[in-house]
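User: I'm writing a tutorial on reading structure tokens. Could you give me a worked example: one chain, its sequence, then its tokens, then a sentence or two explaining what the tokens reveal?
Assistant: Sure. Here is the example chain.
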Amino acid sequence: MTADTLLERITDYANRPDPYPLYAELREAGPVVRQADGSYLVGTYHEITALLHDPRISTDPRNRPAPPSGPSEKVPQPPFLRLDDPEHHRLRTLAMRPFGPPHSPGRIDAMRGQIADITKELLEALRDRKHIDIVDDFAYPLPVTVICRLLGVPREDEPLFRQWSDVLVATADVKPEKDTTEQDRAGHQARAEMGQYLVDLAEQRRGRPSDDMLSAFINEPDPAMRLTREELAGTAILLLIAGHETTVNLITNGVLTLLRHPDQLDRLRRDPDLLPGAVEELLRYEPPVHMRERIPLADIDVAGASIPKGSLVVLALASGNRDPKRFHEPDRFDPGRTDNEHFGFGGGIHLCYGAPLARIEAQTALDALIPHLNAATLVQDPPPYRQSAMLRGPRHLLLDVQQPT
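And here are its predicted structure tokens:
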């Protein structure tokens, strides 16, 4: 095997349980490694940091040359997460308005009590269970319930948007270069259906404002700050998917990591004040997002390697999080770690704007779970993983729970 097949091997589902040896191989091969399909892999911390902050690097997939066999139909505008400034900044600012003014308590802080109540209700329902799936029974319903309440989406419609989310997440995954026309078409259809559903929900609140974000968007009084119908659809889709997909992985990876490190689990049980730092360490050690794609808008030089304009550049964020040139003993899980500027929420202008909510949910969830984990054992290790290499996390995490006698 050679370094030019690393992306293919990293994205191979067989390596989903433990891609970290491949990331180490990537770092040893060089800061930038060209792949056989013409893409470029970057796996070292400092080079990833520089690229995340480089204005010559685009997130917009439309800046890639279309393949000869590609679709002829017009590609819809991506969500603002995959747009460049100034359009990215404009839409991100509009999307953030309903969260509350910058640097002041807003909608997210106001939900702390609700998040704690939802967590308590979920655990209460599991109290007498001897077998638990952390994903289906806890890590998924918690953020889904929270984001549904924030947006104003009926919780009973969750099966509908979960189906759309699965298609869209699969479409967004990082893969070696190949024809993905059929998958892309399915993604476009799912996005259109989900967007129509969310816009229709918002329209039901026009002139009848309620305390949710769809209502805030549709009843924005300032014409200059209103989203168009297409922008509302794209923003609502992004909020709904990003508002739960990564948090599911963060909580599930957190439980798995703590059960694999009983000494650190006991440490957190004895010293709960370490929990905020433990969440940051989980974001570094087992992040919910492993890779991001970028496209150079001009020929660039990275650590002596020339990357042509329009190439696919894959930033292996999870590899950068384990770079020994940046982190001391990077393969060690240490909840007390300081100087922990990780890529768990990306970086640069596209730093995850939902990070405050994800942190609150993860801290609340783990704080509630930790007292019960000493009575739990993993049924299967490694557990079965989700298909996505980008959004990496267990599809199920089955636990046997010993009930007190």
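What the tokens reveal: The mean pLDDT is 90. The domain at 3-401 is CATH 1.10.630.10 (Cytochrome p450).
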